[in-house]
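Recap from last week: sequence in, structure out.
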Amino acid sequence: MAPGESCMLPISFSPQKAGALTGSLNFTDTNLNAIAPAYARQSISLSGTATQLTQTISFSVPVNAPIGAMLQLTATASSGLPVSLSILSPGQCVLSGNKVWLQKQGNCVIQATQKGNVEYTAATPVNGTIRALVR
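Predicted structure tokens:
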């Protein structure tokens, strides 16, 4: 390049955590007619704020099932992080891992949650209601 000209270089990076980040980018130019080790070196300070990504939960349950049924449940997060299930109607049903056992007539409400991590914010909880019916 001629003296006074500028050069544009695209730079991208993937932060490993959210929050304020700082760093530097170092260049070594070996084309300025300099002989090693006197190559031209430049350092550029970088700063910015990384934000967490959002995620959603996919969770659906059958609308009706007979009392005594043991049902397999599936919940996934768009982030790929593990989803936790919990019962919001104690005494109505029992949860064991990703299986729910309907104990008595009425509504069994199950909540799927994902608390997030340094890369993803917590997902909005999703509730599913199964109506346990007499056979």
